[in-house]
Design brief:
The protein has about 350 residues and is mainly α. The protein has 15 helices and no strands. Helix 1 crosses helix 14.
């Protein structure tokens, strides 16, 4: 999740905006009762497939990070680039805590507030920040190693990481044939895959990439439906963020969106895409507030959980719009906070 630049890249903006919307979309299934409803009938089959399409969200964000950050080098001022993310998290966390205290009646002492922030739970969806910080700290050193490798070694690195994180969930369904300890380092796989795609774009046509993305989601969604056997949805290895299915899905969707030029689109449409891309991080973090307000209304209006999928085309845009409205002042405030931090030039003048 990058900060705004003077010259916008429409393809990257579209990918960021799509990742943000897909994240809020997959939260529909978390908050709409999908996981408690029996997976039976055509509607639930469709829900399983749509859910798998939306699960591309986090992998898509990580691919974008690897694609855009592969050129970064370490310097003494490098860590200042983390300030916008940290400021956004603190402000979004404060907004979520205030909502939880005023709307939900939770009580927080000073010690509990500190604990909430330091465990990345002040914003209940803040786990991504905890993961991103580690990836940010490692990225300049990953980049140095990446650029020191020849083409063959780069390919071997991508395949090695994919083998460690993506293959165990598939192969180990027959037994523990591959080590599972490394599955949790999937952010590194997506990072180097993003760097690889920057240098070696997929050659398939746009419609073929979308067809692969949708086809994979349909196959895995159907498997999830059948695995449930008419009962509650059972999480599968393919549902994990680093799974082979999601890795391939994300690569296809990112490659398709990255090519978009936005030529011929009205100015307001391009502006909306750029704004959604800019606000993707704060929108995601404060979407908890929108979820807690919108989904109880949905549950009351549509008591049958399996029928709520029909309300998704209305519910998700409402959550997105609500979250964007909350995210904009947070983005302004975060920008102001970062502006107060002394720069390297200021430090040199003061010394």
């Amino acid at each position: 999740m990058e900060t705004q630049t003077k010259q916008r890249d429409f393809g990257l903006d579209l990918a960021r905006a799509a990742a943000g919307v897909l994240t809020l979309s997959v939260h529909f299934f978390l908050n709409s009762g999908f996981y408690e409803a029996p997976a039976a009938g055509k509607t639930m089959l469709a829900a399983c497939v749509v859910r798998m399409l939306c699960m591309t969200c986090v992998p898509l964000f990580l691919l974008i990070t690897g694609y855009t950050c592969a050129g970064r080098r370490w310097s003494k001022g490098y860590y200042r680039k983390l300030l916008p993310v940290l400021s956004t998290y603190v402000l979004a966390g404060a907004a979520c805590l205030a909502f939880r205290a005023l709307w939900q009646g939770e009580r927080f002492g000073v010690r509990e507030v500190v604990r909430q922030f330091t465990t990345y739970s002040a914003a209940p969806y803040g786990w991504y920040i905890e993961m991103y910080i580690g990836l940010f700290l490692l990225s300049p050193f990953l980049n140095a190693a990446w650029h020191a490798l020849d083409e063959g070694a780069k390919r071997a690195l991508v395949l090695s990481l994919a083998g460690l994180t993506a293959l165990p969930g598939l192969v180990n369904q027959l037994g523990t044939l591959l080590p599972v300890w490394w599955v949790g380092v999937y952010p590194l796989t997506y990072y180097v895959l993003g760097a690889w795609l920057r240098e070696h774009p997929l050659r398939l046509k746009g419609w073929q990439l979308l067809a692969c993305w949708a086809g994979l989601a349909a196959a895995v969604g159907a498997k999830g439906y059948l695995t449930a056997g008419g009962g509650a949805y059972l999480w599968m290895p393919e549902d994990q963020w680093g799974s082979l299915a999601l890795t391939l899905e994300a690569a296809c969707l990112f490659s398709c969106l990255r090519r978009a030029k936005g030529e011929g689109l009205p100015g307001p449409v391009r502006w909306c895409v750029a704004r959604a891309a800019r606000l993707a991080l704060p929108m995601y973090l404060v979407s908890y507030i929108a979820d807690q307000i919108v989904y109880p209304v949905l549950a009351q209006a549509v008591p049958e959980a399996h029928r709520r999928l029909f309300a998704m085309p209305v519910t998700v845009p409402v959550v997105v719009a609500f979250s964007l409205a909350l995210a904009q002042p947070i983005d302004w405030a975060a920008g102001a906070l970062v502006g107060l931090a002394p720069t390297k030039k200021q430090n040199a003048q003061e010394s």
